[in-house]
């Protein structure tokens, strides 16, 4: 099978964390010094119990629970305004990801939760990293050479066992063009499907011919695939 990158492949492992007792001024200083939008709050064991964001800090500094006075009747929001430590500022419960999640699953979770990043936890519930929207985007921004190598080495070579040069591969701006001859017609949709499953591939354009069982050659042409 192709290696599909997971959250564990793209997450940041060195995470700036806070403790529930971290004073407000130190929280603000850590976010600013590390140029980050938020940081997880962890307990004594290292399990995430909440997240403090830059917007939480701004609410505290402006003395308003929300922009233009929104959330004026929200006691939790007013509690953040009055908070002196991270446990008062943080949002809880915290939504987390797992290192073995696929990139699409993590992206859907970020969108569903309306957050920009997720702490990543292991089987023991302890923090192992953090994954952000930009981390997930980077998984799909790959060079043409990287994609070319994966098509030739993994799809055509390791998985299908085709001889080198059987299929010529070109990659331009993430679009894969395939030219050549394969032993069986059924391999054509297989090759196309495998190529489409490679991270960073935006389209597959096959120009492949295949041998019919017990007869000559039959050109097999499929239109561009996305």
Automatic annotation (TrEMBL):
This is Inosine-5'-monophosphate dehydrogenase. Coiled coil: none annotated. Keywords: CBS domain. Residues 11-68, 90-146 form the CBS domain. Pfam families: BON, CBS. InterPro entries: BON_dom, CBS_dom, CBS_dom_sf, Diverse_CBS-Domain, UCP036990_CBS_BON. PROSITE patterns: BON, CBS. The keyword Transferase does not apply. SMART domains: CBS. Residues 144-212 form the BON domain. It comes from the Bacteria.
